[in-house]
Design a protein that fits this description.
The chain is α/β, with parallel strands linked by helices and about 300 residues long. Helices cover about 50% and strands about 10% of the residues.
């Protein structure tokens, strides 16, 4: 007898998660547990966030009940952060279930556009906040499979890695820690991280691609303070989401390559705040040895640029 499946959706509001969940439910005979539906039950308003704790308590309870009955379940919520996905994984930790994550790679601008046509649109600033909190799923969270969903449509403005790199050319970082243009900085760190490998190798390795694009989110997050110094709040999250939703159409990469690329972009700032061995060991355990060591090796290169620039 096959194990019941837990399929966890991951995507911004208005990315099409619920529509895709319904298609998967029909195809795989799956029950859907939707945080929006529960919110509407309790608050009479799908946009009401005032009782989120109660909503997600019921959300997790229903998931566990269906799985205990041997039924396949789709967890339909944004699930865009490690914390939210970890809560789901921990909720079913003692159950023998197959855990699958479906990432919905819809461009931020398309989510904003389609949200305006929804019956119950969410405030646009909420979708913007979701993008700024986005954290790419990784298998070490507890997934047996991560699928980047094929949206079955093409974007008019496809990006290639070359176009992304070119877009950073001549971008002034306006920060005393960086006297290089953004493209020069990314090249500098990439060359250190790759050990001088031929640039063509970025097409064979997701982590190398991530190194070459690690700060691309700065193009979309620059703010200038009263001293004319630029800051880039959550550029790593926004950069990762941009690369995910642009490169998933680029067929030279496998899903695993793209996940590795986005992992390095998404989490490359974290080691700057790891001040003791206890914290480092926590993330070593959470990321797994290989990803942790890769991230730390990149961090050493990224730190060096503070002196190198």
């Amino acid at each position: 007898m096959s194990r019941p499946k837990l399929i966890v959706m991951c995507g911004l509001s208005a990315s099409g998660k619920s529509t895709i969940a319904k298609e998967l439910a029909i195809k795989h005979n799956v029950c859907i547990v939707s945080s929006d539906s529960i919110r509407e039950e309790i608050c009479r308003d799908v946009a009401d966030q005032s009782k989120n704790e109660e909503v997600f308590k019921i959300f997790h309870k229903r998931i566990r009940e269906y799985l205990n009955k041997g039924q396949n379940v789709i967890a339909d919520a944004t699930n865009i952060t490690m914390k939210s996905r970890r809560a789901i994984i921990e909720n079913v930790r003692k159950l023998d279930v197959e855990k699958i994550c479906y990432i919905i790679p819809k461009k931020f601008e398309d989510c904003i556009r389609d949200n305006r046509n929804r019956k119950h649109p969410v405030p646009e600033e909420v979708i913007a906040a979701q993008r700024s909190k986005f954290q790419i799923p990784f298998k070490e969270e507890g997934w047996e499979k991560i699928t980047i969903y094929d949206m079955d449509y093409t974007y008019a403005d496809k990006f290639t890695p070359e176009a992304m790199s070119f877009s950073m050319t001549g971008f002034d970082q306006k920060n005393p820690h960086h006297n290089m243009y953004l493209d020069q900085h990314c090249d500098f760190v990439y060359n250190m991280f790759s050990g001088g490998q031929h640039p063509y190798n970025i097409y064979k390795n997701g982590f190398l691609m991530g190194a070459s694009l690690h700060d691309i989110g700065k193009l979309y997050t620059q703010s200038i303070d009263k001293n004319c110094i630029a800051h880039y709040l959550r550029h790593e999250n926004i950069g990762s989401y941009f690369v995910l939703t642009s490169l998933y159409l680029w067929k030279n990469f496998t899903d695993d390559d793209l996940l590795d690329c986005c992992f390095l972009i998404n989490y490359h700032m974290m080691p700057f705040s790891w001040e003791n061995e206890k914290t480092k060991n926590k993330w070593r355990k959470r990321f797994g040895e290989y990803k942790y060591e890769t991230l730390m090796r990149f961090h050493e290169c990224d730190k060096t640029r503070l002196d190198g620039e």
